[in-house]
């Protein structure tokens, strides 16, 4: 007769696993001897090895009981089905890993490579994370609503970053978000911005002003009292 500990050693499993297989109805429980101990037989050891082998191969415990005494054809069919299920699980895990890799790419998960590079340039320029978030969300929205316009606008924006005055205006507009609405610097910033745009060819954004309004009106935190006044000053002058 074999004790539960010796049986577990023979099969290469833990005593806890043997008890779990008893609970699941996979391994028959033996009777107890006069001392109250369970005594296992060679058949228990054979059955336990089969259970361990099937479980290690990825067969769900819920299916092992039906396969322990299955004939060769039934076993082969079941194993083929389980293999197909495992292949699908592996494919799903690979898709999940790909998504995780994209998440590690930050902005690149949500925007085009061109927009991601533009955001990297802005980050290197020193704009705030708030500004970067607004830019990113705006590009997500525009690309969804009008991919063609978004592609033209991002090409233009990336060209503009080569202009020192544009870079300076970007930083000052970013800082102005937190100014008071009556800040005396706002009129001067409005004049500089308007004069800079006056010396530029018409923007690609002008071809679809509705999209520009949609982006401005849809982004949470996309304005502030100072920015609202700055927009009014630029429109008035």
Could you give a short description of this structure?
With 237 residues, the chain is mainly α. It is built from twelve helices and no strands.
Describe the fold and architecture:
- The protein is mainly α.
- Helices cover 70% and strands 0% of the residues.
- It has helices at 4-11, 15-23, 42-56, 61-67, 72-104, 113-125, 129-145, 147-160, 164-176, 185-198, 209-218, 225-236.
- Helix 6 (113-125) runs antiparallel to helix 7 (129-145), helix 7 runs antiparallel to helix 8 (147-160) and helix 10 (185-198) packs across helix 12 (225-236).
- The protein is rod-shaped, with a radius of gyration of 34 Å.
- The relative contact order is 0.07.
H/E element string?
HHHHHHHHHHHH
Spans of at least 5 consecutive residues whose pLDDT stays below 50 are none
Structural class: mainly alpha
CA-based shape: rod-shaped
DSSP strand count? 0
Radius of gyration: 34 Å
């Amino acid at each position: 007769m074999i004790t539960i500990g010796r049986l577990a050693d023979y099969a290469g499993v833990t005593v806890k696993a043997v008890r779990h297989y008893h609970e699941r109805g996979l391994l028959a429980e033996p009777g107890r001897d006069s001392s109250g101990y369970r005594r296992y037989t060679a058949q228990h050891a054979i059955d336990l090895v089969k259970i361990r082998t099937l479980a290690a191969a990825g067969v769900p415990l819920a299916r092992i009981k039906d396969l322990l005494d299955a004939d060769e054809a039934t076993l082969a069919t079941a194993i083929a089905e389980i293999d197909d299920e495992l292949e699908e699980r592996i494919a799903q895990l690979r898709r999940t890993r790909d998504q995780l890799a994209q998440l590690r790419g930050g902005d690149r998960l949500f925007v085009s490579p061109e927009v991601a590079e533009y955001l990297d340039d802005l980050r290197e320029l020193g704009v705030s994370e708030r500004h970067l978030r607004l830019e990113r969300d705006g590009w997500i929205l525009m690309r969804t609503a009008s991919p063609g316009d978004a592609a033209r606008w991002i090409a233009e924006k990336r060209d503009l970053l080569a202009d020192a005055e544009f870079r300076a205006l970007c930083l000052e507009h970013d800082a102005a978000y937190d100014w008071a609405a009556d800040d005396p610097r706002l009129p001067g910033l409005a004049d500089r911005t308007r004069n800079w745009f006056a010396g530029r060819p018409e923007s690609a954004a002008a071809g679809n002003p509705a999209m520009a309004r949609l982006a401005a009106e849809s982004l949470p935190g996309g304005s502030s009292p100072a920015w609202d006044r700055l927009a009014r000053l630029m429109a008035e002058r």
